[in-house]
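Blinded run. Sample ID left blank on purpose so nobody reads anything into the name before looking at the predicted structure. Input follows.
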Amino acid sequence: MKTSHLLIASAVAAALTLPAATLTHAGPAPKPKFEAEKCFGIAKAGKNDCQTANSSCAGTSRRDQQGDAWIYMPAGSCNKVVGGSTTPKKA
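Blinded prediction complete.
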């Protein structure tokens, strides 16, 4: 009986851990297949494509519109977005 409880507990623990493990992302985002540019200052918190001065990898920016956090945008479209810039801003 104890073995079956242990087996069930292990399965539940594995099921709860798997989604968290798939959400973590280390390193930079892959370069998109379209003609792209880096657009700074418009990414939402946790949605940046690469490291910043204050975070170590993609998906780790700490606040919305962080000046040194960037995302890939189609070439020529960054400056059309309010707050977007092709050069980093002060974090």
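Unblinding after everyone has recorded impressions. The chain is about 25% helix and 10% strand.
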